[in-house]
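Reviewer comment 2.1 asked that we show a complete input and output for one of the modelled complexes. We chose the 5'-O-[(L-methionyl)-sulphamoyl]adenosine case, as it is the one discussed in the main text.
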Amino acid sequence: MFTRQFNSTFFKLNEVNKPYYVTTPIFYVNAAPHVGHLHSMVLADTIKRWNGFLSVTNTPAYLTTGTDEHGLKVQQASANAGVETKAFVDNASKTFKILADKAHISYDRFIRTTDDDHIEASRQLWKILQTNGYIYKGQHSGWYSVSDETFYPETQIEKKKLEDGSDQYISIETGKTVEWSSEENYFFALSKIQPQLLDHIEKNKRFIFPQKRYEQILREVKEGLSDLSISRPKSRCSWGIPVPGAEDVQVMYVWLDALTNYLTSAGFPNLKPNSPWPANVHVIGKDIIRFHAIYWPAFLLAAGLPLPDHIVAHSHWTMKGSKMSKSLGNVVDPVQTLNTFGVDSVKFFLMNDSFLSRDSDYSNDRIIHRHNTELVNKYGNLVVRVCGKAFNIPRSISSDSKIFRNESLIHQINDLPEKVATHMKNFNTAQALSDIWSLISSANTYVQESEPWTLKSNIEKQDAIIKDVSEAARVSSILLNSFIPEISSAMLDRLEVSKDKRNILFASYGTDTSYGKNANRKGDYPIKSIETD
Ligand code: MSP
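Response of the prediction step:
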């Protein structure tokens, strides 16, 4: 049986008594939150909830999110707004916290890179890298993009002719303008750690998701890595963490500072045996893969710290095929979306209609369609059907008809948890949801075809049908709790499943024989359609 098999996997997973640790990227505070940011949060939250769900009898999972507040971009944005930089970031950071709260993201820490413990952690990491011989001073010249906060190698730059005939240089990857810049900086010896990094990536095929990104990074690391400038002259950017030993002249490169947030949230530099580090999953967008899959593990290896298990890079949301961006004016305001359609319906759309390996088009119509057809007409309908006044759930679930059992539906119910677990191991939320909906559809079809309301004179058969269908609704709802917590809880409430029987141990057929006491008397509908004109 799944539960037993699952338990053995589970105990293996949690041998080390540490929480399953999931992170979102920390968000730049120089622009307002958009639906792409919400997507990173929701994916991380779903992964956290699912793994917490799996470890029901053990350590809970741990999730962090927050804001990335240092760097030239922020310094410039606050200057443009005519606001003192700290006041500017305080205000901007709040908008992301509001979004996380509004979307019911179950974060355990909202980290800000201006937090004291983070500044301390970043300086500590720097000192360790220095002691270990990975930091040196040098002259740095190269193509720098203010907007991307990074230097690009010559091979990643292309020349563009402007309308006035002048030349502009841009980064091929991001399309952002770059300028030639020369300065004295500290460097990280990325080339020295390259063999170790390559070895780690080659040995850990599940280090980077999806597969095509794994291959892309493997190729890049194989080609060889140049050393990385990890500080900026204070004269150019003063809004950053001072470099230990050079406090008056240099600040840390914003990506080194930002990436360290994942350690800060885990308690670094005071990591204990049950601290969350190493992270199990860093959820990121595809645009920041190099920073997470090359620089970050390189820093960690050089510092002698354990590496995260998985880096999961999701794709982007587009609008009618083009990238969502502020300059195109096609950015979707996530708070407004959540207000209009409801938290779980937006989550349901994001986790259903997105893929790690290709971009997806955002559409309000699609949110409404998913809500009305799948959540209301299929899932809601299934729950409401078994709660019909003509049936009796408590009597049905304690009956045990050998003749009228629907073996194929029972198999589908019992196979489902493991299927979902496998998809979630591959961070494939869309496939996990699709398998849950296959069960919901099978159960609906079974009710439709067997017409239990016509079986008043064959109660044994009616009860057997209602038992199998109720079990499909109950087990689906338990499994849906990580994806659509509010809606699935409302359904479990409607089925009168007791709160302590909503965990993985009850996610198989026949494991709960005590629900539904008044379910067939109430007649209310736990979910409503979204009206369209
Ligand atoms: N501050 C850095 C991350 C540092 S992590 C140590 C950053 N911030 S960001 O605000 O620009 O982006 C945060 C996340 O939002 C990224 O994962 C990015 O991929 C994601 N998205 C931004 N636009 C997006 C879409 N249009 N669609 C989906 N996600 C996208 O990068």
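The longest strand covers residues 135-145. We note this here for comparison with the apo prediction described in Section 3.2.
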